[in-house]
């Protein structure tokens, strides 16, 4: 449906300095699916979306919608945005304040010279779908944030576009509303069956909504796959760090193992089992990633402290705890290593300063680091190495 | 993760590619290219022609032999240098005086609880609309020889041998010019006083400094960059000004560059276009020099001034028992602005002019109004003024919108170039532009000479920089996603302009249009060579009739124009909220 190939875009904010906003971005979106471009600000996700919309002109690459090229750098082909037949929701919503709700929604149909009756019917149907048919006559400036968001969505889908583009549509809403709109968006996308490209920096949103996620960093896609695969099988330390609130524990690889095999990592004074994601020699600096919710935390008893730390078990002291309602987060100082652990359900009776015992799972992923031991920038080489044995197939 | 396109495209031939790139670039910048062509055709020929004609013999620019004689003549008898010297003395002295007074008034209005704050702002806006020629006439009635108000009062007090005031001389010429640039100077200086960071002053006060010491050591240095900018801008206005030197300076044989141009064309038996062009070129050079200084000063000012956009207000000094005495400062503004207007109002009610006194009131009559409002030529001039002002306002704002859009939304060398081109008329004083437009169209195949079209051309060129500025300021506050939403919806560029951009920009377009309209109503220098016995605007009509010594009619006509100006000024005042916190200074004059 949508095919983006080797997109490149450079900005030069100053003469001497060139920023590669897009550095070879390629992906496909299947008909009727919701595809998410996820990334921190400056990762190139919005530039990619704006390139698809035709609001930005890439330097090279190719974009096809329905097998028809709308941009091709090598053929100097560029279809302007008004000829691409798209719907788009902007981060600012871009509701036209000088028009009523009805007129805002009707605009895409008016410019396509649809008949008066057809316009009325389509606008009413769309407003009903968005549960805002009673607001049709209202001035667009008199809407609440949530209503503006739904209006922007109504305007984007009213013309039944080939492709729906959403640029951080929920980022301006308060937390409660955002959660509700998330469900509504998903329902709408399923009901209309519109192929959707969604841009967000919020990993929770991405995990909740997407059929597929592409995580972007520095103008590249560093990993692409279904939400569960991105969450559970990050291919690099960057992805592991970006998705979820992961512990990234620095350690040393004690026993080299084959890629995809269990290995042992030394962290602080103790050791822990993990799964090696890339070839590394014994003694190499590695990062062990462990999700806070998979760590078991319990108050240390006398019998615990008597025995030395066994594999996967760490002694520590609670530094702070945060009660989040459905769960509680503990920050534990385990022999100089800071580890976050999460307990769901009732708040356990563990207080600040308590001695605790952490039990780490054995399935933590182990990412070798550069020889320097510094957290590596995500090099394309690492990201692109085939890791069939580790990750469940990505594509 | 490989997503190579399944279908391999056939390679596109290089020529097709080049053509596509060219067509694409043209389409993308279509609006800017259109504006570039239109603007280039409008602005460049007059300016080039007027400079070139300083090097050509004879009256036809295109057929004369090239020569340096004009420059030799102008400089040989020392008249050229003397004129330049006069121009600088006149404009520098009036600029310093105007800004000094403006700073004092601005201090009282913005930093103390002196009364009449709103009145000051309102009269300042009104003053921006009163034709300068009218104000100068009023001052002559006030300070002129023989039966002027001041002299009659002096005689009444001291008897026959009383000291007399003579308006025709350096002193009053400078003073009157100062009153004319005062409103602009005030609007530039006042915000600096308003937004100076109070914390800095409080710090000085806490350190034990009194009001005066704080003023001298903290407040004044803070506003100094703004004062400098205002002085330089007033200097430029002075260099370009025509009305005051013509009405006040000429009888005293004080020539400046703008009046020198005028006399080479209008007062000579045979117009000397060559000498006029030399003076015009010199005048432009002086203006460019002034603008250069101004830009250097303001570029530096940004580093110094601690003006922030935040909503905080400096503490106002409570004058307590001096509050009402301070009204002397604030009421000075309405006084100097309204005094000449009052004189004209007085003159308009008298069949034969006589200085204001109680027993003259019984001679009051409305006959002058009857005559003026039944004068076909005046009504014609009035109609021209309105139509031309309206036309210029619409055209200037339209070109300005498209240009500003290009600069902000499609930034490129081309759109920046167009922006620069549109700002070029800033260095062309009204008298010069008038001469330039005349020079281009007098022997041009385009037959608009001696029609109102030629005045429209001059007005549009002259106010284009303001059109750009207003639109730039307005568009920069519009979120571009509002337009992009329409693009993605499938709207063409034209449709986006008409349905989205223009409605969104309406307040700014209206305010800018009103400003241009109001400014055109007071224009004399710009139409001085373009008007004629059968083609007048109000200011040129008044000018002509004043030169025929028909004082009562001239005064009456002046009053008739001031009335709509008052209405428009009130509207503009409300729209821009001048004097409110958000108001930026609106323009130069």
Description:
The complex is a heterodimer of chains A (395) and B (589). By secondary structure, chain A is of the alpha+beta class. Chain A is built from 10 helices and 21 strands. In chain A, strands 7-8-9-3-10-11 form a 6-stranded mixed β-sheet, with helices on both faces. In chain A, strands 2-1-4-5-6 form a 5-stranded antiparallel β-sheet, with helices on one face. In chain A, strand 17 (313-323) and strand 18 (327-334) form a beta hairpin. In chain A, helix 2 (101-110) runs parallel beside helix 4 and helix 3 packs across helix 4. The longest helix of chain A has 18 residues, at 175-192. Chain B has helices spanning 14-28, 30-52, 69-76, 79-111, 117-127, 132-143, 149-158, 170-195, 198-206, 211-240, 243-249, 257-267, 273-304, 327-348, 367-373, 376-409, 413-423, 430-442, 452-475, 481-488, 493-504, 506-521, 538-547, 551-576. Chain B is mainly alpha-helical and 589 residues long.
Query: How many angstroms does the end-to-end distance of chain B come to?
Result: 64 Å
Q: Describe the largest sheet of chain B.
A: none
Number of helices of chain B: 24
Average pLDDT taken over every residue of chain B? 83
Structural Rg of chain B:
27 Å
Distance between the termini of chain A: 16 Å
What general form of chain A does the structure show?
globular
The neighbouring-strand order within the major sheet of chain A is 7-8-9-3-10-11
Number of strands of chain B: 0
Measured by DSSP, the beta-strand proportion of chain B falls in under 5%
Oligomeric status? heterodimer
Which percent bin holds the helix content of chain B? 55-70%
> Of all protein chain pairs, which has the greatest interface, and how many residues does each chain bring to it?
A-B, 48 and 32 residues
Instruction: Describe the global form of chain B.
Output: globular
For the secondary structure, the number of strands of chain A is 21
**Uncertain residue segments of chain B:** 1-8, 303-312, 579-589
How many DSSP H or I helices of chain A?
10
Tell me the series of helices and strands of chain B, N- to C-terminal. Answer: HHHHHHHHHHHHHHHHHHHHHHHH
């Amino acid at each position: 449906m949508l095919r983006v190939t080797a997109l490149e875009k450079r900005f030069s904010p100053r003469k001497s300095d060139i920023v590669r906003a897009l550095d070879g971005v390629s992906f496909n979106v299947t008909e009727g699916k919701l595809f998410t471009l996820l990334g921190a600000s400056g990762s190139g996700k919005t530039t990619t979306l704006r390139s698809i919309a035709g609001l930005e002109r890439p330097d090279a690459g190719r974009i096809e919608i329905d097998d028809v090229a709308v941009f091709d750098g090598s053929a100097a082909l560029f279809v302007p945005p008004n000829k691409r037949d798209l719907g788009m929701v902007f981060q600012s919503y871009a509701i036209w304040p000088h028009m009523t709700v009805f007129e805002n929604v009707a605009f895409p149909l008016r410019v396509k010279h649809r008949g008066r009756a057809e316009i009325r019917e389509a606008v009413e149907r769309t407003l009903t779908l968005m549960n805002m048919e009673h607001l049709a006559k209202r001035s667009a400036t008199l809407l609440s944030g949530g209503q503006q968001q739904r209006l922007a969505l109504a305007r984007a889908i009213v013309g039944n576009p080939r492709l729906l583009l959403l640029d951080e549509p929920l980022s301006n809403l308060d937390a409660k509303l955002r959660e509700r709109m998330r469900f509504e968006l998903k329902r709408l996308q399923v009901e209309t069956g519109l192929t959707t490209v969604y841009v967000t920096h919020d990993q929770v949103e991405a995990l909740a909504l997407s059929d597929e996620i592409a995580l972007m960093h520095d103008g590249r896609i560093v990993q692409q796959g279904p939400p569960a695969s991105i969450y559970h099988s990050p291919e690099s330390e960057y992805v592991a760090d970006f998705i979820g609130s992961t512990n990234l524990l620095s350690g040393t690889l004690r026993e080299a193992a084959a890629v995809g095999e269990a290995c042992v990592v030394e962290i602080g004074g103790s050791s822990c089992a993990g799964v090696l994601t890339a070839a590394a020699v014994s003694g190499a600096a590695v990062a062990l990633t462990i999700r806070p919710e998979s760590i078991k935390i319990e108050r240390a008893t006398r019998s615990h402290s008597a025995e030395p730390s066994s594999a996967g078990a760490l002694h520590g002291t609670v530094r702070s705890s945060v009660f989040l309602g459905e769960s509680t987060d503990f920050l534990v100082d385990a022999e100089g290593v800071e580890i976050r652990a999460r307990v769901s359900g009732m708040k356990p009776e563990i207080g600040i300063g308590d001695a605790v015992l952490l039990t780490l799972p054995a399935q933590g992923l182990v990412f070798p680091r550069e020889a320097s031991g510094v957290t590596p920038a995500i090099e394309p080489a690492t990201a692109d190495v085939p890791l069939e044995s580790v990750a469940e197939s990505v594509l | 993760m490989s997503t190579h396109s399944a279908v391999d495209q056939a390679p596109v031939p290089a020529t097709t590619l080049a053509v596509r790139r060219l067509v694409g670039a043209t389409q993308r910048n279509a609006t800017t290219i259109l504006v570039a062509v239109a603007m280039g055709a409008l602005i460049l020929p007059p300016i080039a022609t007027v400079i070139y004609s300083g090097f050509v013999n004879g009256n036809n620019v295109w057929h004369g032999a090239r020569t340096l004689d004009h420059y030799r003549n102008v400089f040989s008898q020392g008249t050229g240098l003397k004129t330049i010297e006069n121009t600088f003395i006149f404009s520098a002295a009036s600029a310093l005086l105007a800004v000094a007074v403006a700073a004092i008034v601005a201090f009282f209005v913005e930093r103390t609880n002196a009364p009449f704050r709103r009145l000051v702002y309102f009269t300042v806006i009104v003053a921006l609309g009163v034709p300068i020629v009218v104000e100068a006439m009023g001052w002559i009635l006030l300070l002129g020889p023989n039966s002027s108000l001041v002299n009659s009062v002096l005689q009444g007090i001291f008897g026959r041998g009383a000291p007399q005031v003579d308006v025709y001389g350096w002193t009053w010429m400078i003073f009157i010019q100062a009153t004319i640039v005062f409103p602009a100077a005030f609007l530039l200086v006042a915000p600096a006083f308003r937004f100076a960071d109070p914390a800095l002053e409080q710090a000085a006060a806490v350190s034990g400094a009194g009001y005066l010491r704080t003023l001298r050591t903290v407040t004044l240095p803070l506003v100094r960059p703004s004062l400098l900018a205002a002085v330089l801008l007033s200097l430029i206005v002075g260099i370009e000004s025509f009305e005051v030197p013509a009405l006040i300076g000429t009888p005293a044989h004080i020539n400046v560059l703008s009046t020198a141009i005028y006399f080479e064309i209008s007062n000579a038996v045979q117009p000397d276009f060559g000498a006029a062009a030399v003076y015009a070129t010199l005048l432009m050079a002086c203006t460019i020099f002034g603008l250069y200084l101004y830009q250097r000063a303001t570029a530096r000012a940004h580093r110094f001034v601690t003006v922030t956009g935040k909503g905080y207000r400096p503490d106002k000094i409570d004058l307590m028992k001096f509050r009402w005495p301070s009204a002397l400062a604030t009421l000075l503004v309405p006084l100097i602005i309204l005094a000449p207007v009052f004189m004209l109002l007085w003159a308009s009610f008298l069949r034969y002019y006589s200085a204001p006194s109680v027993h003259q009131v019984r001679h009051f009559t409305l006959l002058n109004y009857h005559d003026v409002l039944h004068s076909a030529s005046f009504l014609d001039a009035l109609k021209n003024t309105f139509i031309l002002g309206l036309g210029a306002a619409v055209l200037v704002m339209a070109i300005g919108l498209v240009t500003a859009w290009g600069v902000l939304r499609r930034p490129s060398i081309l759109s920046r170039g167009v922006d620069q081109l549109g700002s070029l008329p800033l260095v062309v004083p009204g008298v010069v532009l008038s001469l330039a437009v005349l020079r281009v169209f007098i022997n041009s195949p385009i037959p608009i000479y001696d029609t109102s079209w030629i005045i429209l051309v001059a007005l549009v060129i002259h106010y284009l920089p303001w059109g750009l500025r207003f639109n730039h300021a307005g568009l920069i506050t519009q979120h571009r996603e509002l337009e992009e939403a329409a693009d993605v919806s499938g709207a063409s560029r034209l449709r986006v302009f008409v349905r989205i951009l223009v409605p969104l920009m309406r307040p700014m377009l209206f305010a800018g249009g009103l400003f241009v309209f109001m400014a055109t109503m007071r224009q004399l220098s710009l139409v001085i060579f373009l008007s004629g016995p059968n083609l007048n605007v109000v200011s040129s009509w008044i000018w002509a009739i004043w030169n025929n010594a028909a004082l009562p009619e001239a005064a009456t006509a002046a009053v008739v124009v001031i009335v709509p100006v008052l209405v428009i000024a009130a509207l503009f005042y409300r729209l821009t909220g001048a004097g409110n916190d958000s108001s930026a200074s609106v323009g130069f004059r």
